[in-house]
Every structure is written in structure tokens, then in C-alpha cells.
Design brief:
The protein has one domain. The chain has a two-stranded antiparallel sheet with strand order 1-2. The relative contact order is 0.14. With about 140 residues, it is mainly alpha-helical. The protein has 5 helices and 2 strands. InterPro entries: Cyt_c_oxase-like_su1_sf (IPR036927). This is Cbb3-type cytochrome c oxidase subunit I. It comes from Mesorhizobium waimense.
């Protein structure tokens, strides 16, 4: 499995554990104020990261490109900035942290655009000599 796939899958599992923990905390405390953060952690952190990992596992040539690892780093950074801030904003009522949420969201958006570039870009076609030719 390509390294970027493995990283996305491992990161997805971490976010799944965090999302489940927050869900359990909300259920036990009967305080569901943070449910949007819980949903974002599960959808963006767990599901989307796993989908990215699956895409790269199915497209190893694209996974081998440097931009795939840039995508991973950018997306993970965006989530790490956005999700805790979103939780604090919603669960603790800390509206002053909203600019941090917005910054994280913009980083995530940039990462998604990066992934779009990866998906729509052509991969080089290997030649008999092992050198890469022009993209398909």
C-alpha cells in the first residue's frame, strides 16, 4: 500500500476514535451542544480521510507523486486547526475562536482543491526505457 494511503487510513482511525469519544461524552453528559463538531470530526476526519486513502491505494502512480503527500499534510493540518477550535466554539461557547475555525476551514478547502488537481491531472506514461514520457 502506498505510504500516503497508509497515513490517511491511520489518521482516519485517530479521528474515528476522537469522534466516538466525543459522541460518548455527549450521550453521557446529555449535552449535545457540540454535535456539529462531532459530525465534522466523523465526516471530514474519519470518512473523507479514509476515502482519500482508498483513492491513493487504487491509484499508486498518483500516490507516488509529491503532491499526494502535500495533500495529506495540508488536509491533516487543516483538520487539526479547525476541529478542536470548532469543538471549543460550540461546546464551550467560545465565539472568539471563530477565526481559528475559519482559518482551518480555508486550509481544508485548499487541500480539497489540491486533491481535485490530483484526481483530474494525468499521470506520466512509463516508456520501455523507464523514462517518463508526456502525460496521457
Amino acid at each position: 500500500m502506498p505510504r500516503v494511503s497508509e497515513l490517511f487510513f491511520k489518521t482516519a482511525i485517530v479521528f474515528l476514535i476522537v469522534g466516538i469519544a466525543i459522541g460518548l461524552h455527549m450521550a453521557i453528559s446529555q449535552d449535545h451542544a457540540a454535535f456539529p463538531a462531532h459530525a465534522h470530526i466523523n465526516l471530514l476526519g474519519w470518512v473523507t480521510s479514509a476515502i482519500f486513502g482508498g483513492y491513493y491505494a487504487l491509484n499508486p502512480a498518483k500516490a507516488a507523486r509529491r503532491i499526494a503527500m502535500i495533500h495529506y499534510g495540508l488536509y491533516t493540518l487543516g483538520l487539526v486547526v479547525m476541529l478542536p477550535a470548532l469543538y471549543l466554539m460550540l461546546a464551550k461557547g467560545n465565539t472568539a475562536i471563530e477565526p481559528v475555525v475559519a482559518t482551518g476551514s480555508m486550509i481544508v478547502a485548499a487541500a480539497v482543491l489540491t486533491f481535485g488537481f490530483v484526481v483530474f491531472s494525468s499521470e506520466p506514461v512509463p516508456t520501455a526505457s523507464g523514462l517518463k514520457s508526456a502525460p496521457r
